[in-house]
Structure formats: C-alpha cells, structure tokens
TrEMBL record:
InterPro entries: Homeodomain-like_sf (IPR009057), HTH-type_TetR-like_transc_reg (IPR050109), HTH_TetR (IPR001647), Tet_transcr_reg_TetR-rel_C_sf (IPR036271), TetR_C (IPR011075). The lineage of its organism: Bacteria, Bacillati, Actinomycetota, Actinomycetes, Pseudonocardiales. Residues 10-70 form the HTH tetR-type domain. PROSITE patterns: HTH_TETR_2. Keywords: DNA-binding, Transcription, Transcription regulation. This is AcrR family transcriptional regulator. Residues 33-52 bind DNA. It comes from the Bacteria.
C-alpha cells in the first residue's frame, strides 16, 4: 500500500510551521531564512514555496495555527480588575519573543492586514467586556466602547512598537485607570 500523500503533506506542513516559530525565536526575523526552515523541518525549499511566497506569511500561519488563541473575556463583578487582567495579558503577549518577532516582521513587510488579524482578538475581548459593563451601568451611557478598547490597547501597542519605554504591568494598570476615569458614569 503506497504512503498516504495527504498525511505526509500535513506532517510536512506542521514540521515547517514548528521550525519557523523555533527559528524566529532563536535567531530573529532578520536572520531567518527559508533555507534554514527547510533544513530544520526536513523538507525542500520548494515545498515551503509551494505553500508560502515568503517568510512573513509563513510566520503568520505558524503563529495562527500553533500559538494558543486569546481566551474569551473574563467577566466578574469587577470591571477595573477585568480590564487590568486583559491588559496585563496583552503585555505578556507583546513581550513574548515569538509574538514580537512575528508582528514586527509583518509590520516590516507592510502586512498590516495580518498584524490586525493577530491583534484583533484581544480588542474583541475588551469590547465584549465593555459592552457587558455598559449594559449594567458600569460605564457612561454615551461611551464609545470601540474607542475605549482602542484607547486601552493602543497605548500598549504604541509603546511596544516604538519601544519608547518599558512595557510593564504597572503601565497597563495606569492605562486602565486613565480610561476608566473617562468611562465612569
């Protein structure tokens, strides 16, 4: 019985994705090559190029398929505490070397569409938590919840992208405090 080509293909695809994440973490985006990924995955370069035109889209797929997704919103009776947890989790995510390397690579390649896909789940979680708070009167009736989520995350993303200052839990807490002053009824 001949080997199952689909199973071999799935195995090769997964090996490529794993190798790409391991290498970007080890050597960074600038030094990452398709040749190195192919060697580590035990496949030919042509196999990689058959599925991905460049290392940016390869890393995006690796990240989407192999890195755990952002969990659903945490909803307790403490809005500020919930927002602090979400922003602290965002800080941890942004400081993760793999996430950092993949996002910076995509920004460098001008793939803001892919960066948006990586960053959007956390914004959706924040908007969901803010909608619950809005319904029960924890935030002003006229609050723009999309803008509030953007303010919360935008400050973190700018500091991360520009490396203008350390990205810390304390900074995340401060951002939550500032935004909450504007949102309270």
């Amino acid at each position: 019985m001949p080997p199952d080509a689909a199973r071999r293909s799935d195995r090769s695809r997964r090996a490529i994705l794993v190798a790409a994440l391991e290498l970007v973490e080890a050597v960074g985006y600038a030094r990452l090559t398709i040749e190195a990924v192919a060697a580590r995955a035990g496949v030919g370069k042509q196999t990689i190029y058959r599925w991905w035109p460049a290392k940016g889209p390869l890393l995006f797929d690796a990240f989407i398929e192999l890195v755990p997704a952002v969990p659903d919103a945490v909803i307790t009776h403490d809005l500020v505490g919930d927002l602090v947890v979400e922003l602290r989790d965002a800080v941890v995510e942004l400081e993760d070397r793999r996430f950092d390397q993949v996002c910076r690579a995509l920004v460098h390649e001008g793939r803001t569409d892919l960066v948006t896909l990586l960053l959007m789940p956390r914004r959706v979680v924040l908007e969901e938590r803010l909608r619950v708070a809005h319904r029960i009167g924890e935030v002003r009736a006229d609050a723009d919840l999309e803008a509030a989520a953007e303010l919360l995350l935008g400050a973190l993303y700018q500091r991360w992208l520009l490396r203008s200052a350390p990205l810390t839990r304390e900074y995340a807490d401060s951002v939550v405090g500032l935004v909450m002053r504007a949102l309270r009824p």
